[in-house]
Amino acid sequence: QREHGFLAELWAVAGVGPEDRVACLDTDPVNLMVSIAKAFDLLGVAEAYCLSAGANFNRTVQTIENLAPTVLVSVPSIIERYMSKAPWTQSDDGRPPFSKVIYIGESMPSTTRRTLENAGVEVFGYYGASETSALGIECSAHEGIHVIQSRNIFELLPNRVDPTLREAVVTTLNQRAQPLLRYRLGDQVKLLPEPCPCGIPDPRLIVLGKPDEFISVLGSKIGYGSLKTSVYRNADEVGPLQVAISRTTIEVLDLILPDTIKRIEKEVLESVVSAEPDLAFLLDSGFLKLSVTFVNPGHFFSDRKFKPIIDHRG
Ligand SMILES: [Zn+2]
């Protein structure tokens, strides 16, 4: 109950109110999806319901059209899948039924976010961890996540390798069943020191994720998940990706991919460059080279512990 109350506070930060009809689409695990919907009820929205994407995704897309929610809550990969089939994405001036998207779990590729924003949708990132449940949410200023301190104490440990980063450590104040004391979430974050224009006093973090979830290159951070989404945008299904980064006279970012998608190499590179403005900038400036190495798909299963990112810069 207390957890639902806290979640309801977070939804209010995202500007969700009594007029809203909220659809929660396949947000794993199921108990999180149910908590999320209950918290919207507690907030007093007009309607909050859960949808399962299920086997027939076209039907799910149609259901969203019919129910016309004002807020869509889901994980980025499901949102992408929905967008690839939604009628409003098929025309330049198409508008979705909802005006807000709250995404949970993974980080959202910047192209997905831009497509939504260009269609008039306000996008909010939710921050939580399975060990701690809710931690914070993005506000209307859309720069970083407010981590709410009435609920948890946050400490930021220095990162020895990259001084611009910190590691988030959390102590729970309200979790009776499984309290955590200075628990290392493993998430690398950046602290935004300025007060937020929205007026919420809680500190703002840019959450980059676990060290194997982003590539740090020449001061830019490129999300592994977002890169993978871009790589496979024109493929039939999402496959494996390994990223190797090395330094010669310049830095070289090598995308290691199964040779089954060799025929779309050009599309892969175009998609990656258009999705990652930071990467495009570094390539243009000549400080970075992007390459693709195609390997036998067996490569991705040969190692007992697959490493998504290999850093040879040591
Ligand atoms: Zn704010």
Any key phrases for this structure?
314 residues, single chain, 17 strands, eleven-stranded mixed beta sheet, 31% strand, four-stranded mixed beta sheet, binds zinc ion, alpha/beta, 28% helix, globular, Rossmann fold
Characterise the protein shown here.
The protein is α/β, with parallel strands linked by helices and 314 residues long. It has 9 helices and 17 strands. It folds into 2 domains: 208 residues, Rossmann fold (3-Layer(aba) Sandwich); 100 residues, GMP Synthetase, Chain A, domain 3. The protein is globular. The mean pLDDT is 89. Bound molecules: zinc ion.
**Unreliable spans:** none
H-E order: HEHEHEHEHEEEEEEEEEHEEHHEHE
Q: Structural class from helices and strands?
A: alpha/beta
| Spatial shape | globular
Helical stretch tally: 9
How much of the residues is beta strand, in percent? 25-35%
The description of the largest β-sheet is: 11 strands, mixed
Task: Give the CA-CA distance, first to last residue.
Answer: 48 Å
Using the coordinates above, name the CATH class of the largest domain.
Answer: Alpha Beta
**CATH architecture classification of the largest domain:** 3-Layer(aba) Sandwich
Number of strands: 17
| CA gyration radius, whole angstroms | 20 Å
Strand arrangement, largest sheet?
2-1-3-4-5-6-7-11-10-9-8
Number of domains: 2
Bound molecules: zinc ion
Percent of residues in helices: 25-40%
CATH superfamily of the largest domain: ANL, N-terminal domain
Reported by name, the CATH topology of the largest domain is: Rossmann fold
Average pLDDT, rounded to a whole number, is 89
